[in-house]
Write a structure and sequence with these properties.
The complex is a heterodimer of chains A (225) and B (424). Chain A is an all-alpha fold and 225 residues long. Chain A has three domains: 1-66; 67-127; 138-225. Chain A is 79% helix and 0% strand. Chain A has seven helices and no strands. Chain A is extended, with a radius of gyration of 27 Å. Chain A starts with a helix and ends in a 12-residue tail after the last helix. Chain B has 424 residues and is an alpha/beta fold. Among the domains of chain B are: 36-150, Immunoglobulins (Immunoglobulin-like); 187-354, Rossmann fold (3-Layer(aba) Sandwich). Helices cover 49% and strands 19% of the residues of chain B. Chain B is built from 13 helices and 15 strands. Chain B has helices spanning 2-35, 45-48, 79-82, 161-182, 193-208, 224-243, 254-270, 289-303, 317-327, 342-348, 356-366, 369-399, 406-419; strands at 38-39, 56-62, 70-76, 88-97, 102-110, 115-119, 126-135, 144-145, 149-150, 212-215, 247-251, 282-284, 307-311, 331-336, 351-354. In chain B, strands 1, 4, 5, 7, 8 and 9 form a six-stranded antiparallel beta sheet that branches. In chain B, strands 12-11-10-13-14-15 form a six-stranded parallel beta sheet, with helices on both faces. A three-stranded antiparallel beta sheet of chain B has the order 2-3-6, with no helix packed on it. In chain B, strand 4 (88-97) and strand 5 (102-110) form a beta hairpin. Classes of the chains: A mainly alpha (225), B alpha/beta (424). At the A-B interface, helix 1, helix 2, helix 4 and helix 7 of A face helix 4, helix 6, helix 7, helix 8 and helix 9 of B.
Chain lengths: 225, 424
């Protein structure tokens, strides 16, 4: 029964959602709204579930003094500090009638001066990784890689307005060659490729959903691995 | 000091609100007078004196594909709204139940608006609508009355009938092939390199004595990509259990963590190695996207997994994760249905499951006839899509103004020729 009940719920929910697309009103439209509310409620409680799990795993690591237990201390301290500051900001906001994220509140300060810079730092690393990945991808080791290199060259110089002025300086002013080639590559071959992938994905999702609704695919609820 | 400043803000807010209320009252007073029940036939000459031109062509139609509780009212804008005096502030909509001469005001809309949806009606009831234009100074035009309309219930949204037909065709073919596969019919499936490498990748990690890292995307369980990732996790975890290796599954969503724990535990049970299952290796990290990336990168650099799986929904973090995995020398298998992230995975990973291959992976790895049959059913959808693309391209070419025009080809050829210096 432990496997069957989630499968039955999944099947009913899947059928209701599929039917509500074609009958978007009572009773299916309403059932869709009810399921949507359930998802919101479950997700709200799931945040606590996740937080408790993080605390439990970190605490166990510290108690057992496993490798890297110091990181567990940092996680717990950070979590506690953020919780205290967050709750105090919310209580102050309620008593004063202002927003908990108003300028000057502790939560806003933590958000602006710790959370945002840390996120931005991680995101900015992407620039360096793009460079290293491009270096490997664009090495002309095979016919496909050479085609990729040539295409990438035209798209890059077409997107960066560097070579068009040079072409213009040579007297060719009526035809922005590199920009036009880059636009053509992006509009036709690139769009065609992307759409082909999208069609395949849509078919894959349809087939996968049918397998889940019919209960043929059940490994996500821990069965028939 | 802060209290004083709060007081001054409150006073300012109070004065602004008071002023807004006064302005609103001045403008809406003439309209509020119209809120009481009025009779269209009782419009006095005083009301019409200096009144703007009335809207025209007032239409009331039953709202399509609902349970019969709404009517859509539309009209052509008053002449004084678009040209003329340009003094129309909006339109007032009135409703009457069939058989009654009394029209009740049911709402108003701003100028340059030509439609109104009346909802919450009774199914099967007949209604009639009228619309007047009005000015800010309170003059109201004569109401223009629509024809009668009866609300009806329509179950099916006929705008989506083509989607329904396609769904029936594709769903039907999937069911057909599942049925035949169950009967024992052999299905041919092309080889997917990324999936064939799964066993080899797990074996490599076992030989090296290093763990395996599995990332089921960064979305929650309400994304079908995460579910696809979980189904592959079940197969991977079973092999990991059989090989007596170790798998780490850090998740970004707490529900995904619960599902992953259950999936891995069941896989270990199926492999008969439930004693080797470690719940602590499957854990929640954080909902914050880049916080999660930082944590996973940390795991990679500290634990140096020999194999990394990235199977699910990925966004900006895809390349950061895959490049870090590449830097530690891990064999990497990725798959996502995010077309924008696929080039990053192709560049940084050893194998990439492109789009539909992610959803086919579970069936492919299971080798079950009924699951493989569903993949065959997908192919029917591909044939339909290819035929539609081909027919659409031909029709668009023939239907365009420049289609099949020899001058178009001549012009294009001349353009290319001149670019390469021809004709000089």
């Amino acid at each position: 029964m432990k496997r069957e009940i989630p499968l039955i719920i999944t099947s009913i929910a899947g059928i209701v959602f599929a039917v509500s697309y074609f009958i978007p009103h009572y009773p299916f439209g309403k059932a869709e709204n009810i399921f949507g509310d359930w998802i919101s409620i479950v997700s709200a409680f799931a945040i606590w579930l996740g937080m408790l799990n993080l605390g439990e795993v970190s605490l166990r690591k510290i108690i057992r003094k496993t490798e890297g237990w110091q990181l567990g201390v940092i996680v717990l301290v950070s979590m506690l500090v953020m919780l205290i500051i967050g709750f105090s900001s919310v209580f102050n906001a309620i008593s004063s009638g202002t927003s908990h994220m108003a300028p000057g509140t502790g939560l806003k300060w933590m958000y602006d001066y710790t959370f945002s810079p840390l996120s931005a730092t991680m995101f900015s690393m992407l620039a360096f990784f793009v460079a290293s990945a491009s270096y490997r991808a664009f090495r002309a080791r095979s016919l496909e890689a050479t085609l990729l290199l040539v295409t990438a060259f035209f798209v890059m110089v077409g997107r960066v307005p560097l070579l068009d002025p040079i072409v213009n300086a040579l007297g060719i002013t009526d035809f922005p060659f590199f920009s036009a080639v880059a636009d053509w590559i992006m509009t036709y071959p690139n769009s065609a490729g992307q759409r082909a992938i999208m069609i395949g994905i849509a078919l894959g999702i349809t087939s996968s959903s049918l397998r889940i609704i019919l209960g043929i695919e059940r490994s996500h609820v821990g069965g028939d691995a | 000091m802060s209290r004083l400043s709060r007081l001054s803000i409150s006073r300012k807010t109070f004065l602004t609100s008071l002023l807004s209320l006064l302005v609103f009252a001045a403008y809406s007073a003439p309209l509020l007078a119209q809120d009481s029940d009025i009779s269209v036939t009782d419009s006095t000459s005083a009301e019409l004196e200096g009144a703007p031109a009335a809207p025209t062509n007032v239409l009331a139609v039953d709202h399509k594909y609902d349970i019969g509780e709404a009517v859509d009212v539309s009209w052509d804008l008053s002449f004084d709204d678009t040209a003329g005096m340009r003094n129309v502030a909006g339109y007032i909509i009135y409703r009457s139940v069939a058989g009654s001469a009394e029209f009740d005001s049911i709402g108003a809309v701003f100028s340059l608006t030509s439609s109104f949806a009346d909802i919450g009606l009774t199914r099967g009831e007949t209604y009639q609508y009228s619309v007047s234009s009005y000015t800010l100074s309170g003059q109201v035009s004569e109401p223009i009355v629509s024809a009668e309309v009866t609300t009806e219930r329509e179950w099916f949204d006929w705008d989506e009938v083509w989607v329904f037909i396609l769904l029936v065709l594709i769903g039907g073919s999937v069911m057909y092939f599942i049925y035949h596969a169950r009967k024992g019919k052999q299905m041919f499936l092309r080889k997917i390199a990324g999936l064939q490498a799964v066993e080899e990748a797990i074996g490599r990690a076992t030989e090296m004595g290093r763990p395996i890292l599995f990332i089921p995307g960064i979305h929650d369980m309400d994304d079908v990509q995460t579910i696809a990732g979980m189904t592959i996790l079940a197969k991977v975890a079973k092999q990991v259990a059989e090989y007596e290796s170790r798998i780490f599954v850090p998740t970004r969503a707490s529900l995904a963590m619960t599902a992953a724990r259950e999936t891995v535990r069941e896989a270990y049970m199926t492999a008969g190695r439930v004693d080797a299952y470690r719940a602590d290796d499957i854990y929640y990290v954080t909902d914050e996207q880049f916080g999660y990336v930082a944590a996973v990168n940390g795991i990679m650099t500290r634990d140096k997994p020999a194999t990394c799986f990235y199977l699910g929904a990925f966004f900006a973090e895809s390349l950061i994760l895959a490049e870090t995995g590449n830097s530690i020398g891990a064999i990497q298998i990725a798959g996502t249905a995010q077309p924008a992230q696929l080039p990053f995975f192709v560049a940084a990973c050893d194998y990439t499951l492109i789009g539909e291959e992610l959803f086919a992976a579970s069936a492919y790895l299971s080798g079950e006839a009924k699951q493989l049959g569903s993949l065959k059913g997908q192919d029917v959808g591909k044939v339909i899509a290819m035929a539609a693309v081909l027919i659409g391209a031909v029709l668009a070419t023939l239907g365009s103004e420049e289609g099949m025009n020899i001058e178009t080809f001549r012009g294009a050829f001349h353009g290319i020729w001149s670019v390469f210096g021809g004709g000089q």
